[in-house]
């Protein structure tokens, strides 16, 4: 997938909790240590981010790292204390309340950790709720909701109530609802954290399937590094309110910027992260050699090597670009430098 | 001398401070009579003439107050109309039908909805909300009312409930939402709610009587004042408990403020809000009898009338009819709360609303049949049952057979308990009591609590009500102690026995829906009027919370601790005394608190049987329509309740903090 132009840009975004936070932030020269000494809590510190059109951008951090606060700043559910948030070139922080309402109604969708389904409404009504709020007439919004429900694989349960569904099904409803208004920017706030491991895997797969059809611009929050690796085009790792490193999963695993990032990546099998593109030796691909796309991971090339090939071919956009040698793969996996 | 000790002292000096305060109080008591007589009798010249001020203020409100061209009396008239119109409608439907007065004779043009139809509709409502079981229960409750000949009165009462409940719920939602939105509004509202819930209802009956006149409208308004505060509190609480994500959702999908409240927040808080609705219903029914003093007819009037005639049987039957109404409406509202929405049916109007259709058919057919067979329209008198003569005979038999025993018991209690305590309490110098309350407040909750407890008790003295307040405290105190002495052991005995507790709970639940007046009647008949009768009635009424909270406390003890105790080889007795009771202490303290509140509210009612306390003042003010005296005495009772409540809550909080349970609470 080729990254599109930038959709969402954060510049030096701060969120400081406490009395007269903005004044203190300006006075303290944006120094987190001095803010803390004043009894204020800098939950998000000097965050610079760029989310590109059509990519899955994962913000990963442990609890208390400020990731949930940050994602709420992006949609202005929480008012940032300072900074700039540009959405398609428009600064959201200067938008009026009415403008924000319009932007949220038509261009943003959000999935919540604990689903936030309305208990008094059926699945159909829940999914249609964002459209109802916009004032769309009933037949139109129910038709659209039906479509979404089919998309997430819940057709037949339209008239069930949330309490009659399993956790996984409830989150499918949450996903369908967040997509009902056809947003271009899709926020998912730890959508799978409240689910069992097996259901979580299933929904992760479902999520990837949806994205391959819909090509939304996605900001995905998680505390689970494996989930981040599995889903992300790019990951931002947060610690104590600040972004520590931004990069592709492969960047993080191969070149961790700090010890903190290295701690996370240590247990990640490189084979599942490193893509063939980074090991390729440019050159012609001999006839009959097994070929894989450049996006494929080393692990995905495993079966070919195991069946005896010393080299596999690598293709990108249909054309061959070079080969990967088995020895290079073995060197990578056994701990050598890539 | 000041009631406020030095705040610089450390909490560790507790014993020393108590010792000093007690010594001071003792000194005052022993020698104050000669040295400082004002410590005993609050000087009349310094008295605050609060009663006169309030009386004057209300007269001014009624006669002269106006805001521009709108006189205050216009406002009250508008409010009265708002209540009166729906009440007349409900009354017409259920009890009176369409009637007209021509030449002194009531002519009924259209009869009210027949009793058969009402029972049928109630059953249908029960079926809709909770299935067949509830349908049967509803039908049984209303059939009971019909069979015992309470139908018309019950329908009059039901009409006023039907008006009061929606208004109370709407008002509670409105104020609760405002309080939730605006913290300043909540801060302003909270003390008012506290006062409204602790002040005896009698106290504000008089101003209502003056503002709205005698009649069902005034009664409904009094009911609203009594039943709205809990709904307000529950609304605020329920809204603040809606998960943060629901707010986020509302903003993310771009809800307007109104959409957020009505489409997201209130539905999310629905179950908690239905608890509030249930409270409004139950409190409205509690008010039925008291409201009948200012003109509500119906069952309340029947009970009150029976009490005046000392007709125990008639009172009991009307009282039980109130209980039947209470049970039916209570279960119905609970079922509605737990009932999830059911997908609407498709098809023509009749199919989509089967219950409404059935009810309409029932009303029309019974009306037509009723024209031919009167028994369908009105429950036939010939088929009425009455247990009244039986009860009268039973009470008479007991009185004749056990007269000497009863007299002996009464005299024993009076001579050895009631009179000495009363003398002691009346002999206490008010200054010492104010001082001790201040110290207790400071020790348990800090400077603000000390200011509150000493300030309020000082106000009681300053408005010249010390003596009557002490009689109230003495009666309430003794009754509470006895209620606790009986209730706590019962609680301990039933807490660990599942089946026994189920039975006990059913009994105390019923006892609490039974109107408090019903307790009074048999006791008055056995012991005649006086303090002893009042005490027994109060104990009987206030024992329920003592049992309930003890059981709750014992049952909520962490089972792992019990297991740990057993593993260490504790005997059951040791587990009870060393683990369970210790950990249940905060709950039991709250139970004590509730017991006191119940005792105080019952005490006001016992004024009807001739106690000489504040309740009597309130009651006399009511009969003389003197709003000043009534309110001042009512406020004094509210002050006593607030002092006890704050002190005990602070004590419970401390106990909980010491046990490290604060987070769990």
Explained architecture:
The complex is a heterodimer of chains A (338) and B (665). With 338 residues, chain A is α/β, with parallel strands linked by helices. Chain A folds into two domains: 6-269, P-loop containing nucleotide triphosphate hydrolases (Rossmann fold, 3-Layer(aba) Sandwich), CATH 3.40.50; 272-333, CBS domain Like. Chain A is 38% helix and 25% strand. Chain A has helices at residues 21-27, 32-37, 67-74, 97-107, 123-134, 138-151, 167-180, 197-214, 225-231, 249-254, 259-265, 298-306, 326-333; strands at 6-17, 41-52, 56-61, 82-87, 90-91, 108-111, 185-189, 217-222, 234-239, 242-247, 281-282, 291-293, 311-316, 319-325. The two termini of chain A are 23 Å apart. The model of chain A has no long low-confidence stretch (mean pLDDT 87). In chain B, 46% of the residues are buried. In chain B, β1 (66-67) and β2 form a beta hairpin. The two termini of chain B are 39 Å apart. Chain B contains 27 helices and four strands. With 665 residues, chain B is mainly α. The interface between A and B is medium-sized, with 30 and 20 residues. Chain A: Its EC number is 7.6.2.9. Chain A: Keywords: ATP-binding, Cell inner membrane, Cell membrane, Membrane, Nucleotide-binding, Transport. Chain A: Belongs to the ABC transporter superfamily.
**Largest interface (CB < 8 Å):** A-B, 30 and 20 residues
The CATH homologous superfamily name of the domain at 465-665 in chain B equals: MetI-like
Backbone structural class of chain B: mainly alpha
Q: Which H/E pattern describes the elements of chain A?
A: EHHEEHEEHEHHHEHEHEEHHEEHEEH
Radius of gyration of chain B: 27 Å
C-alpha-based Rg of chain A, rounded: 22 Å
Overall 3D shape of chain B = globular
Largest sheet of chain B: 2 strands, antiparallel
Output mean pLDDT of chain A: 87
Count of DSSP strands of chain B:
4
The fraction of residues assigned to DSSP E strands of chain A is 15-25%
Strand content of chain B: under 5%
CATH class placement of the largest domain in chain A: Alpha Beta
Helix/strand structural class of chain A: alpha/beta
Kindly identify the CATH topology of the largest domain in chain A: Rossmann fold
The count of strands of chain A amounts to: 14
Overall number of structural domains of chain A: 2
CATH architecture of the largest domain in chain A: 3-Layer(aba) Sandwich
Q: What is the CATH first-level class name of the domain at 465-665 in chain B?
A: Mainly Alpha
Family (chain A): Belongs to the ABC transporter superfamily.
EC number (chain A): 7.6.2.9
Enzyme class (chain A): translocase
Subcellular location (chain A): Cell inner membrane
């Amino acid at each position: 997938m080729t990254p599109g132009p930038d959709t969402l840009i954060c510049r030096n975004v701060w969120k400081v909790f406490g009395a007269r936070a903005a004044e203190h932030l300006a006075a303290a020269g944006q120094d987190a240590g001095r803010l803390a000494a004043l009894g204020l809590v800098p939950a998000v510190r000097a965050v610079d981010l760029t989310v590109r059109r059509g990519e899955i951008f994962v913000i990963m951090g442990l609890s208390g790292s400020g990731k949930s606060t940050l994602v709420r700043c992006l949609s202005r559910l929480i008012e940032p204390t300072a900074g700039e948030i540009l959405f398609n070139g428009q600064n959201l922080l200067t938008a009026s309340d009415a403008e924000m309402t319009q932007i949220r109604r038509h261009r943003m969708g959000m999935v919540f950790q604990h689903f936030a389904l309305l208990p008094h409404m059926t699945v159909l009504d829940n999914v249609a709720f964002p459209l109802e709020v916009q004032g769309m007439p009933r037949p139109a919004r129910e038709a659209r909701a039906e479509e979404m429900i089919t998309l997430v694989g819940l057709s037949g349960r339209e008239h069930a109530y949330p309490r009659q569904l399993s956790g996984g099904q409830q989150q499918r409803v949450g996903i369908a609802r967040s997509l009902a208004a056809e947003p271009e920017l899709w926020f998912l706030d730890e959508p799978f954290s409240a689910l069992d491991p097996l259901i979580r895997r299933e929904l992760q797969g479902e999520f990837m399937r949806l994205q391959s059809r819909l090509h939304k611009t996605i900001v995905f929050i998680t505390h689970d590094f494996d989930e981040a690796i599995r889903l992300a085009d790019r990951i931002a790792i947060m610690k104590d309110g600040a972004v520590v490193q931004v990069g592709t999963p492969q960047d993080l695993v191969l070149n961790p910027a700090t010890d903190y990032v290295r701690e996370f990546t240590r247990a990640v099998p490189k084979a599942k992260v490193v893509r063939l593109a980074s090991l390729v030796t440019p050159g012609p691909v001999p006839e009959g050699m097994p070929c894989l796309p450049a996006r494929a991971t080393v692990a995905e090339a495993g079966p070919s090597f195991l069946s005896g090939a010393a080299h596999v071919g690598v293709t990108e956009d249909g054309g061959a670009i070079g080969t990967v040698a088995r020895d290079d793969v073995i060197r990578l996996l056994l701990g050598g430098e890539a | 001398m000041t009631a406020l000790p030095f705040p610089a002292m450390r909490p560790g000096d507790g014993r020393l401070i108590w010792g000093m305060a007690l010594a001071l109080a003792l000194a005052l008591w022993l020698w104050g009579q000669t040295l400082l007589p004002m410590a005993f009798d609050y000087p009349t010249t310094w008295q605050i003439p609060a009663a006169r001020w309030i009386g004057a203020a209300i007269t001014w409100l009624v006669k002269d107050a106006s805001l521009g061209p709108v006189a205050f009396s216009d406002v009250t008239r508008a409010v009265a109309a708002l209540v009166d119109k729906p009440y007349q409608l409900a009354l017409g439907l259920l009890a009176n039908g369409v009637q007209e007065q021509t030449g002194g004779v009531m002519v009924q043009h259209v009869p009210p909805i027949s009793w058969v139809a009402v029972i049928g509709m109630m059953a249908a409502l029960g079926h809709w909300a909770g299935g067949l079981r509830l349908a049967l229960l509803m039908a049984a409750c209303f059939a009971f009312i019909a069979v015992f000949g309470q139908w018309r009165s019950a329908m009059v009462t039901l009409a006023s409930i039907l008006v009061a409940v929606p208004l109370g719920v709407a008002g509670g939602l409105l104020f609760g939402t405002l309080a939730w939105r605006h913290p300043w509004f909540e801060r302003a509202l909270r003390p008012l709610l506290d006062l409204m819930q602790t002040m005896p209802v009698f106290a504000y009956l008089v101003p209502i009587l003056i503002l709205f006149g005698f009649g069902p409208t005034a009664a409904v308004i009094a009911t609203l004042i009594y039943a709205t505060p809990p709904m307000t509190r529950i609304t605020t609480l329920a809204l603040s408990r809606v998960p943060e994500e629901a707010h986020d959702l509302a903003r993310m999908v771009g809800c307007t403020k109104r959409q957020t409240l009505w489409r997201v927040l209130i539905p999310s808080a629905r179950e908690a809000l239905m608890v509030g609705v249930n409270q409004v219903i139950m409190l409205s029914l509690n008010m039925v009898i008291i409201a009948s003093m200012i003109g509500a007819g119906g069952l309340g009037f029947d009970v009150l009338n029976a009490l005046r005639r000392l007709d125990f049987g008639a009172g009991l039957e009307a009282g039980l009819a109130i209980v039947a109404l209470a049970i039916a409406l209570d279960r119905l509202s609970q079922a509605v709360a737990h009932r999830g929405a059911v997908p609407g049916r498709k098809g023509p109007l009749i199919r989509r609303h089967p219950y409404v259709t059935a009810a309409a058919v029932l009303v029309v057919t019974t009306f037509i049949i009723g024209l031919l067979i009167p028994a369908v329209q009105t429950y036939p008198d010939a088929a009425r049952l009455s247990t009244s003569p039986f009860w009268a005979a039973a009470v008479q038999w007991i009185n004749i057979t056990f007269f000497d025993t009863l007299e002996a018991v009464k005299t024993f209690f009076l001579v050895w308990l009631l009179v000495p305590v009363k003398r002691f309490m009346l002999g206490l110098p008010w200054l010492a009591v104010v001082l001790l309350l201040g110290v207790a407040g400071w020790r348990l909750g800090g400077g603000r609590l000390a200011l509150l407890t000493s300030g309020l008790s000082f106000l009681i003295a300053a408005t010249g009500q010390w003596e009557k307040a002490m009689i109230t405290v003495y009666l309430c105190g003794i009754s509470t102690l006895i209620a606790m002495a009986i209730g706590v052991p019962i609680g301990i005995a039933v807490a660990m026995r599942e089946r026994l507790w189920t039975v006990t709970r059913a009994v105390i639940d019923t006892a609490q829906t039974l109107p408090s007046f019903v307790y009074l009647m048999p006791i008055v008949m056995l012991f005649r009027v006086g303090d002893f009768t009042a005490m027994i009635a109060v104990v009987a009424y206030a024992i329920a919370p003592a049992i309930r909270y003890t059981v709750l406390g014992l049952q909520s003890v962490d089972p792992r601790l019990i297991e740990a105790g057993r593993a260490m080889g504790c005997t059951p007795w040791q587990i009870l005394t060393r683990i369970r009771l210790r950990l249940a202490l905060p709950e039991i303290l709250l139970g004590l608190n509730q017991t006191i509140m119940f005792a105080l509210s019952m005490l006001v009612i016992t004024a009807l049987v001739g106690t000489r306390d504040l309740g009597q003042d309130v009651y006399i003010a009511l009969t003389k329509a003197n709003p000043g005296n009534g309110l001042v005495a009512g406020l004094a009772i509210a002050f006593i309740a607030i002092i006890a409540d704050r002190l005990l809550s602070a004590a419970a909080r401390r106990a909980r903090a010491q046990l490290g349970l604060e987070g769990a609470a």
